[in-house]
């Protein structure tokens, strides 16, 4: 009896528990469903105001930012107009500079958008150059866009100063010490050889006088750091050629190459536009070089210690001092007749100053690079706007292209021969020779400089200076994109790759002669 009742009670308890289990599961599922529903509703409620804010009135987000920047730019234009009057209206200098500046920026951005699979990115400076060329040669735009020759020349000279500052700060004393032999060969040999070959070709092909031929040769003789340096840094980051220091070699030699070309150009410029004898002009150029180097060394030592290391915003103050001193040196040297002194003063100042800055030099370089972002569109936009299709002769383009091509062929061949005694393999020698062809920044500055000098002091020499300008323009168009493509495509295929994290490139162990 007791047993039966206990069994029944046990069965009842079991049934009760079994019946409550699905109820609990059901309740839990309902609660989970309700919680999920509440979460979805809460998320919807949270996103709903955001969507309302996006399309609210007044607008928010990117549209608000766009309108704000547009109004700010318009008000800045109104303020300038209130000071200068017609200068910012169509036909004025400021209006022309603004149109060229923003057209060059847009041209550079459009070129960056062109992405071809397995093909390296083209340099934006090419788009800037073509934008300035378009502004000049479109009939409607060219009627309202004018820039005073003095303004244009001053801005291009300032851009050259920024280039020289970057070159001086970019010189690595340790790399130069251990690669001095091959670096000097690579910087001096191809530049001088291309200058001489250009003088010969232009004398017989373009009927240039010898002094104008050498002037054109030094315009073409400079390699472009704006193309070579970024391409080499990219290869270096990926580990190509770092075991023999090829990217470091080309980066260091590109700055020295520009120094040789600019010094030679200033010497030839003084010979061409001077009424004295050639010997006197050469001696005057050496005098300018000596004065510039000494002044730069003294100012560089000064900037090493002033401002002192205990001051705040040290990189900004150093960058300001360097920019102000170098711009004054370059522009002032032209005013007092020492044309070659300003460039050498800039290079010596920045190189000497950077020796004592150690790691702080990188911060100064970043500030100078920001300044270059402003002057780069102006430089290439103004250079492109100097070339007029209507003024070109029917056979001028073909002759200019032939001159550039023959000079390039000599330069590439001579560079290959120089590297035959430097301890590189056959593929590496080919890569170095082809990487040493891009031209852009120095040509963009020196090409128009001869034209500006002829317009101001010797109008009868203007036809020669226009031909120099045309050759410089075509050299940029031909070599800048092709050089960037060759470096980007050929580098990974012919250079030996090593892991940058495992390979410590010690320049002292490089057996380069």
TrEMBL record:
Cellular location(s): Cell membrane
Keyword Cell membrane belongs to the record: yes
Membrane topology per record: Multi-pass membrane protein
Domain Cation/H+ exchanger transmembrane, residue spans: 117-481
Region (Disordered): 1-56
Entries under InterPro entries matching the protein: Cation/H_exchanger_TM, CPA1_transporter
Keywords: Cell membrane, Membrane, Sodium, Transmembrane, Transmembrane helix
GO cellular component terms, A-Z: plasma membrane
Stretches with biased composition (Polar residues): 16-28
Biased composition (Basic and acidic residues): 29-38
Transmembrane feature ranges: 66-83, 95-114, 212-235, 247-273, 285-306, 340-359, 371-390, 396-418, 430-451, 471-490
GO molecular function, one term: antiporter activity
Domain of life: Eukaryota
GO BP of this protein: proton transmembrane transport
UniProt record similarity statement: Belongs to the monovalent cation:proton antiporter 1 (CPA1) transporter (TC 2.A.36) family.
Name recorded for this polypeptide: Sodium/hydrogen exchanger 9B1
Gene name linked to the record: SLC9B1
């Amino acid at each position: 009896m007791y047993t039966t009742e206990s069994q029944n009670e046990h069965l009842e308890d079991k049934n009760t528990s079994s019946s409550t289990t699905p109820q609990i599961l059901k309740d839990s599922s309902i609660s989970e469903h309700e919680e999920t529903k509440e979460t979805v509703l809460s998320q919807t409620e949270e996103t709903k105001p955001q969507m309302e804010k996006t399309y609210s009135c007044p607008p928010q987000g990117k549209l608000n930012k766009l309108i704000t920047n547009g109004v700010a730019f318009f008000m800045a234009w109104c303020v300038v107009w209130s000071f200068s009057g017609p200068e910012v209206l169509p036909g004025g200098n400021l209006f022309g500079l603004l149109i060229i500046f923003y057209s060059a920026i847009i041209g550079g951005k459009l070129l960056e958008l062109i992405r071809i699979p397995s093909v390296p990115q083209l340099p934006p400076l090419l788009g800037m150059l073509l934008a300035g060329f378009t502004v000049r040669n479109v009939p409607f735009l060219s009627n309202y866009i004018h820039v005073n020759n003095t303004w244009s020349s001053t801005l291009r000279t300032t851009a050259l100063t920024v280039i020289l500052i970057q070159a001086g700060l970019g010189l690595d004393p340790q790399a130069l010490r251990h690669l001095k032999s091959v670096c000097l060969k690579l910087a001096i040999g191809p530049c001088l050889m291309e200058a001489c070959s250009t003088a010969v070709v232009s004398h017989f092909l373009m009927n240039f006088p010898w002094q104008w031929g050498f002037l054109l040769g030094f315009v073409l003789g400079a390699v472009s750091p704006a193309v070579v340096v970024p391409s080499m840094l990219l290869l270096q980051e990926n580990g190509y050629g770092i075991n023999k220091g090829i990217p470091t070699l080309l980066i260091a030699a590109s700055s020295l190459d520009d120094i040789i070309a600019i010094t030679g150009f200033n010497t030839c410029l003084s010979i061409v536009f001077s009424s004295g004898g050639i010997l006197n002009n050469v001696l005057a150029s050496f005098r300018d070089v000596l004065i510039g180097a000494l002044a730069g060394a003294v100012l560089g030592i000064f900037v090493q210690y002033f401002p002192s290391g205990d001051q705040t915003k040290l990189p900004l103050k150093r960058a300001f001092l360097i920019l102000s001193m170098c711009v004054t040196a370059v522009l002032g040297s032209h005013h007092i007749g020492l044309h070659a002194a300003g460039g050498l003063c800039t290079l010596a100042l920045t190189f000497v100053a950077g020796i004592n800055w150690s790691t702080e030099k990188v911060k100064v370089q970043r500030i100078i690079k920001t300044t270059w972002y402003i002057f780069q569109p102006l430089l290439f936009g103004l250079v492109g706007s100097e070339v007029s299709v209507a003024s070109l002769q029917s056979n001028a383009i073909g002759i200019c292209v032939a001159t550039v091509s023959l000079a390039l062929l000599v330069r590439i061949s001579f560079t290959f021969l120089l590297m035959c005694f430097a301890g590189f393999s056959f593929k590496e020698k080919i890569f170095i020779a082809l990487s040493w062809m891009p031209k852009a920044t120095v040509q963009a500055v020196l090409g128009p400089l001869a034209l500006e000098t002829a317009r101001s002091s010797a109008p009868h020499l203007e036809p020669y200076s226009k031909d120099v300008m045309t050759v410089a323009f075509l050299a940029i168009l031909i070599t800048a994109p092709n050089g960037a493509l060759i470096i980007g495509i050929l580098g990974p295929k012919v250079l030996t790759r090593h892991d940058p994290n495992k390979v410590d490139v010690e320049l002292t162990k490089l057996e380069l002669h």
